[in-house]
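Annex B. Sample input.
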Amino acid sequence: MLSLLTEHPLVCAMTLIVIDLGLWRLLSSMGSAWRLLVRVVIFALFSVLLFNEGLNPLEPAPWPDNVPLHLAATGLQIAWWLFAARTLTVLIGAGMMQRVGHTGRLLQDLLGAVIFLIAVIAALAYVLELPVKGVLATSGALAIIVGLALQSTLSDVFSGIVLNTTKPYQLDDWISIDGTEGRVTDIDWRATRLQTAKGSMAVIPNSLAAKAKIINFSRPSNMFGVSISLVLSPHARPNTVIDALERAMQGCRFLLDEPAPSVALKSSGSTGVEYEISGFVASMSEKRSVRNQLFDLAYRHLQACGVSLLSSEEFAPSAGLSRQRAMLDSSPIFSTLRQEEKDTFSQNMTLQAFRAGETILQAGEVSDHLFIIESGVVTVTLTRQGVPLESGRMGPGEVIGEAGILSDSALPATFTAKTACGLYRIEKQYLKPCLDARHEINDAMKALLDYRLHKAQSLTQDVPVVAQKRGFLQWLRDRSHV
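Annex B, continued. Sample output.
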């Protein structure tokens, strides 16, 4: 076998080409670094083998008297030019992927096409000794004919080059092109593909995208705008509404502190007054959940100050009901009490005020009373590895201190007033007989306690450190800096 290769180097050269094609397929799962190394090594062996046999790609093939051998040598010399073009495009592609990522794929394909065109012209000129000027003149005429026939397609191609050069958007950016909103999944020769919020795929030609109004929601990074609008009764005092909406805004901890969220009165008329809460979140996936949370918080804080959303009937608090009694009606835990029980219960609720920043219940403190938040925002803080961690924020209708009432235990969380708060206090000696008599209320509070304990445990446990994977190219870069 060895003698066959040494006596017939042309067969060995052809074998190297087959091996290259086969290994390129087989090594697809091993990463681009190993595939690139194998291709460079095989091309180097192929070049050494050809030059050792006198098959210089810059000259016509030898052995003109032996037609089969001459044709084989000519084919290998042409294959060398194509092999060189392919290896060069792979090297350039790997370098571009390290620098610009997948967004430079269109430019990479165009550069590869130019390299292959140069390789074909060089093979025609050096190996086949054809008149290159005539070939270029003919190809130029054909290019004009093809260009006229493919005018719209070429417009998309060159528009794609402009988009890849100026980079108004990249892969995974959330953008809007002429009102079509979605996440960029691909930018190819002809079109930009967007995955819309409904899960469908929108294909927008590059020529249209280059001329259209583009809004990139991902620039600047990690900051996405979110807003909600509420139409309220014109009879509600604006200062009261704005204070309630600001508390609702502060109750959503997913809103970024910078730029600061805000509340604004947008328009006013005899039919209603429109208010807007606007802010920013860190990721596009949070926008929907934050909008839903803001609506819920706005409803609760407005209800706490006696204002409701505009409807066909003007809201009016039930006559004769105190704030304590109305709070029991809206509480998900105590709403199952009978009317007479709520009347008696409300008489044993004492309103207690807390200033912003004041501690309501310290971590580890066993509470002998239950708090129901009447107004304001309460922040919940845990400690993980000695560092304070905000785990949540609470608003009107939520309760604090259920662990001490149910099991004489304490939660590992500190409850602090983020804004000025009003909380109704119910003493344990009065609440405990009620829980023993009404099992559904006792079960609801137990479920709430179990949820809070589970959440506290999941947030405070140590997160395992994942080792970063390192590839061959990263190893070479590290070695170059040594």
